[in-house]
């Protein structure tokens, strides 16, 4: 399928999706999100892809929603579009998504970044939810995911002022995993993605799901879920290969079975 607003590549088990509206700072319109989710789901089904990188360019990961699609729309128009339903499908992707972000990471761009499982940020990244300055609020998870990561007080400060924070401050609050020089952020993400791609795919996906269950379940329920997932992995061929390779002092060959 030919895409207009994203580009797609792969390398050593890593699928790479690049937002591609550089003239308007990768503003997120409806078509771009549709294309992005379509490709995420394709990569999730592709056995040759084990990890996904989502990135933009050095100037902007994504500067927010495309206001041209919203400025004349009524509340009923927006509701009928049900435009956020497609965002919910991102959370169903089973493979790890690594965000490689730089420059403007604002509004919908920040929400998209928070849908990634791990984030490598350039030191030039500027991250925030400025929707209040337009008379609205986040609608794709900004109030919910931001609060879960940075806490209520910091979330309220960011959301009620609309002021962004630096990559360094985002690292302090756990919004990103690493901050590196702008010339290195993509390669750092690719290096990490290739490292994870060498791990047993089933275990990677089950661990991802288990970690997110921790936020939804009481502790004992979460422990039960973890143990049942552990038992499930014991039945995999990759478990046999991993343990045998350990005993034979060789590198394992994980196949995802």
Automatic annotation (TrEMBL):
Enzyme class: lyase
UniProt key word Signal: no
GO molecular function: enoyl-CoA hydratase activity
InterPro entries according to UniProt: ClpP/crotonase-like_dom_sf, Enoyl-CoA_hyd/isom_CS, Enoyl-CoA_hydra/iso, Enoyl-CoA_hydra_C
Xref: CDD domains: crotonase-like
Entries under PROSITE patterns matching the protein: ENOYL_COA_HYDRATASE
Pfam families cross-referenced by the UniProt entry: ECH_1 (PF00378)
Entry keyword Lyase: yes
Domain of life: Bacteria
E.C. code: 4.2.1.17
One of the GO BP terms on file: fatty acid beta-oxidation
Key words, A-Z: Lyase
Family: Belongs to the enoyl-CoA hydratase/isomerase family.
Name this polypeptide is given: Probable enoyl-CoA hydratase
Organism of provenance: Brevibacillus brevis (strain 47 / JCM 6285 / NBRC 100599)
Name of the coding gene: paaF
